[in-house]
Prior knowledge:
Layout: E1 5-10, E2 16-24, E3 27-30, E4 46-47, H1 49-52, E5 58-63, E6 67-71, E7 80-84, E8 95-102, E9 108-113, E10 122-126, E11 130-135, E12 137-142, E13 147-152, E14 155-161, E15 164-165, E16 174-183, E17 194-201, E18 213-219, E19 228-230, E20 234-237, H2 238-241, E21 252-256
Parallel strand pairs: 2-7, 12-21, 15-19, 18-20
Antiparallel strand pairs: 1-2, 2-3, 4-8, 5-8, 5-11, 6-7, 6-10, 8-9, 9-10, 12-13, 13-14, 16-17, 16-21, 17-18
Amino acid sequence: MMLPMRMRVVALMLVGAVALEACTGAGGTTTSVPRVSGSPTVGVASPSRGRLLPRHQTVVAEPTTRYVGMRRNLVDPTSGLVFDTRNPNMRLSPLLVTDAARDVSGEPWYRVLLPIEPNGSAAWVRGTDVRLVPRDQKIVVDLSQRTLRYFVGGDLAALVSVGVGTPSAPTATGIFYVWIRVRYSSPTGPYGAFALGLSGFSEVLSEWPGGGRMAIHGTSDPSDRGRAVSHGCIRVYNPELKVLRRVPLGTPVIIHR
């Protein structure tokens, strides 16, 4: 798939802890996550997306600190967890916002997709712990047509033919986002010039390095285009991959059949 890294969730009594293990050829390290205290009691939330989020615009939540207290269930004070937002590049990676609500005190909370298994994992984060930033870029992958469309400001900026997962290791579908960008010294390597690691994972590969994290990455083989050749990643021919080199972290990636 890509990227020698893996992610695991460590449960605490009332606070879950999410830690990233960035592995290299010599092994990896695990960062321990401290308990976050002082989280407010949350009452019944009232949906208020229309008032808290802009209409018809993608928004990401940029963490203001590495460890962010969250809740799996906004109305359940025992569903707390602490999430490590730093990716293996030592960047605080933005999280894609999917919904918003206010608690009974009027404080805004935002539902964000988490870059962990299973796909679609989400949690609620307080508005005071993140900074909302709009994203005007989007990537759409059509597995049936084996194409990738890259949109900027609603306009189609690029349309390329891509390699996709094989029948035995299909590319997962859903809404994901760019979690990490990794550049490689040799464009002729297995991941081409660079890779955009996604928030999602293969649904059939579990023992793969990195736990089966999906990616959009390069390839030096032009024959990969338009074929089912990967272990679930999206392969883009290196010369055509250049258009994605400035895609920001948090950019939504929609994969469908």
